[in-house]
Amino acid sequence: MQIVRDQRKVSLVLGSGGARGITHIGVIQYLVEQGYVIDEIVGCSIGALVGAAYACDRVGELGEWMRTLTKAQVFRLMDFSNPRYGLLKGARILTTLHQVFDDVNIEDLPLKYTAVATDLEKEEEVLFFSGSIYDAIRASIAIPGVFTGVHYADRFLVDGGVLNPVPVNHVSKKDNIVIAVNLDGVPMKEIGMTAKLNPVGLLQESYYAMRRRLSTLSLACYPPDYTITVPHDSAGIWDFHRSNELIDMGYNLAQQALKA
């Protein structure tokens, strides 16, 4: 049976990828300008954070704040932890976010919102669709080795992108247009550069290659109507001081993908 889609309602899937996820703000700006109604958001890691800001009707304010960030301000957001458990606690970032939007219960939001985290011990995805939106964000952004993991309801949770960098399989509104933002696009790096990397660089590039394959498989198994793809090397994990450029990039990539 053919599915008749509502041509204006959107289920938006926002992937993980550190500062590259600031492009999500530009994508949302473009969709809203074009008259699309985003009534479902599924996000992991930075996608869960930006999606939460939109669900709380504060994504514009988040974008304005991000555009002002400098390298020094980004560094001041880093609350260093015991390196045995993770480089950063993450509390300072969430405290600062309270200046942009307040904590609310997910079930009280005006749209369907799902944040994705990973139970590292059971090696399975954990979905947040009720309870504190800040608890959901904190669990979903817990990049292993960077942010300390989260103990939640007898589980040990880390970044949702560990198992599912672009969680299109968790869209529930099947009659909506499904738009996914994949932050693990093919990099723009020069051919042959990988062979010149040191061991740490090679390890990092190997990890990124695995993420790209996971994203590709997820999008192939659960194909959205539109995929907006951000090149993997368009920004480093901490390049939040480039938010002005990244928001504009997201806007332009969304325009290209939907017009195509």
UniProtKB/TrEMBL annotation:
<feature type="active site" description="Proton acceptor">
    <location>
        <position position="159"/>
    </location>
</feature>
<feature type="short sequence motif" description="DGA/G">
    <location>
        <begin position="159"/>
        <end position="161"/>
    </location>
</feature>
<dbReference type="InterPro" id="IPR016035">
    <property type="entry name" value="Acyl_Trfase/lysoPLipase"/>
</dbReference>
<feature type="short sequence motif" description="GXSXG">
    <location>
        <begin position="43"/>
        <end position="47"/>
    </location>
</feature>
<dbReference type="InterPro" id="IPR050301">
    <property type="entry name" value="NTE"/>
</dbReference>
<keyword id="KW-0378">Hydrolase</keyword>
<keyword id="KW-0442">Lipid degradation</keyword>
<keyword id="KW-0443">Lipid metabolism</keyword>
<feature type="domain" description="PNPLA">
    <location>
        <begin position="12"/>
        <end position="172"/>
    </location>
</feature>
<protein>
    <submittedName>
        <fullName>Patatin-like phospholipase family protein</fullName>
    </submittedName>
</protein>
<dbReference type="Pfam" id="PF01734">
    <property type="entry name" value="Patatin"/>
</dbReference>
<feature type="active site" description="Nucleophile">
    <location>
        <position position="45"/>
    </location>
</feature>
<dbReference type="InterPro" id="IPR002641">
    <property type="entry name" value="PNPLA_dom"/>
</dbReference>
